[in-house]
Fold this sequence. Notes:
Blueprint: E1 2-8, E2 12-18, E3 30-33, H1 40-55, E4 62-69, E5 73-74, E6 79-80, H2 93-100, E7 106-110, H3 111-122, E8 131-136, E9 140-146, E10 149-150, H4 178-182, H5 184-193, H6 201-209, H7 213-236, E11 241-245, H8 255-264, H9 269-272, E12 275-278, H10 285-295
Parallel strand pairs: 1-4, 4-7, 8-11, 11-12
Antiparallel strand pairs: 1-2, 2-3, 5-6, 8-9, 9-10
Helix pairs in contact: 3-10, 5-7, 6-7, 7-8
Pfam family, one: ROK
Organism: Tsukamurella pseudospumae
Keywords: Kinase, Transferase
Amino acid sequence: MTVLAVDLGGTKVAAALVEPDGTVVEASRHRAPTGEQASTADLEAAITGVVRDALAAAEGPVTGVGLAAAGPVDEAAGTTSPINLEALHGFPLRDLVADAAGGLPVEFRRDGVAIVLGEHWLGAARGYDDALGMVVSTGVGGGLVVGGKALGGNAGHIGQIELSGYTGSVSLGRTTMLESVASGPHTVDWARTQGFTGATGEDLGAAYRSGDEVAVAAVRRCATAVGQGIGSAVALVPVSIVVLGGGFTRVADDFVPLVQAAVAAHPLPYVAAARVVPAGLGGDAPLVGAAALMYRRDLLP
C-alpha cells in the first residue's frame, strides 16, 4: 500500500509518495512555488503538476491521496481559503487533486490537522493521547489530538488567536493575532522597524547567532508570543505535549526552550506543566502528516 501525500502552503505545494512506515519515496518528491502574487491559474497548474509528477514515479498501485492545505477549510465541500493565498479562497481543491490523480480517493483536511496527526503517528507526540501540534513558518498554524483522536475542521487555528501586549504586521486586517506577531515574515518585519537590515528569516537567524541585539530581541519576542499563544490554547484545551515545527523554529538553537520558558511561566499549573518539544519528523512533517490522513483515518473524526 502506497499513498500520495500533497501539502499546499503559502509559499509552496509539495507532493510525494509515502510508504506505510512513513518513508517518503525520494524519486517521487516534487514541489512548486505558490505565493501571494500567484494567480488562480498559476496555482492550479502548480498543484496539478506536482500531483502528476509524483504519481509518475509510482512503481506499484497507489491507493489514495492524503491532501493537507492551509486553511480555513470546508471539509464537506472540499474547499480551502488559505489566509496567504487569496487566489484560492473558496477553491474546490479536493476535486482538482482528485482529477489530477486520476480519480483516486482523496482524504482532505487542514494542514494543522495533518501535522499533529503525523507527529502523533510517528513523531514527537507518539504515545500521547492529548497533543497540540504547531507550525511557525510563513504563517502560524496548529492542530489538536484530544483523547487519542484528531480534531477535524478548523479546530486548532492557533495563529488567529489574539495576543495581549503585542502589535505586529497586518494579517487578516488585524495586528494583534499570534500570526501577526510571530510568523517568520512578521518577525522579520518587526526587526526591520528596529533597525535590522536583513530581509529573511535566514538573515535574522545568522544575526541572532552573531549576538546582534535587534535579532536577539526579535527572536525572543517571537518565542514569548508563541508561548503566550500556547498558554491560551492549553488553558482552553489541556494537552500534555506541544510539538513545534516549521522553518522559523530553526531560526535559533534555543527557540523551543525559549517557548517552553514562556509556557512554564503561565499561572495555571496544568498549563505550565505542558512540555514543548521540537517536531520529530523534521522537514518531512508536512508530507508524512498528509500521508497520515490516509494511513491513520482511524484517528480522524
